[in-house]
Amino acid sequence: xxxxxxxxxxxxxxxxxxxxxxxxxxxxxxLVPGIDGDCGGDCACATCHVFIDDEWQAKxxxxxxxxxxxxxxxxxxxxxxxxxxxxxxxxxxxxxVVRTPEGQH
Length: 105
Prior knowledge:
Helix content is 13%, strand content 20%. By secondary structure, it is of the alpha+beta class.
């Protein structure tokens, strides 16, 4: 499956991903700029904050209370904000497009 990460400056990076794991894992495995994932995927920080393009929003599970709490710490949070560690990959997300916040670069 393919995932496209777009940096705040418009630089796009298309990567191949297995259909398991999380968006955070794929970002770290491919050295995507702006994704640190400091807490190891435990939803205890917001260093894997991404913006999900509108067309993909309905394919994701709703925000958990923990994810909402962590995102509340982000100055640049929007309706498109999600934590990459909370997005489990599967075939329905093939072609997913995400953007990284300027504040994480």
